[in-house]
Amino acid sequence: MKLDNNKKALFIASNHDIGVVSLCKKLTNKQQLKEFYTHLPDSITYFNALFKVSGMDRTNVSCELIQIEFTPE
């Protein structure tokens, strides 16, 4: 979402807190963020992405990109 000060915000939603925690870890890791950006075309600014997060007792958590939908600005 574009903010009033010309910055952009990323919203993360999940049915369970482990989904939010896992995705935040993924998108704040420089290497994993760089890998995620390979899925985004240069001309696309907005997107919706579906991730599958799985793990037991918040250990051995995996976060896999399932589908991505692009929205033009």
Structure write-up:
It is a single chain. The protein has one domain (17-71). Helix content is 27%, strand content 33%. The chain is built from 2 helices and 2 strands. The protein has helices spanning 17-28, 30-37, and strands at 46-56, 59-71. The longest helix has 12 residues, at 17-28. The termini are close together. The mean pLDDT is 85.
How many individual β-strands? 2
Percent helix range: 25-40%
How would you sum up the major sheet? 2 strands, antiparallel
What number is the mean pLDDT?
A: 85
Q: Roughly how many Å is the radius of gyration? A: 13 Å
Poorly predicted ranges: none
The separation of the N and C termini measures: 10 Å
Domains counted in the coordinates: how many? 1
Number of helices: 2
- Tell me which oligomeric state these chains represent: single chain
Series of H and E elements = HHEE
Instruction: Give the overall form.
Output: globular
* Sequence of strands across the biggest β-sheet: 1-2
Strand content: 25-35%
What class, by secondary structure content? alpha+beta
Brief write-up:
This protein is α+β, with helices and mostly antiparallel strands and 73 residues long.
Main attributes of the structure:
alpha+beta; two-stranded antiparallel ribbon; 2 helices
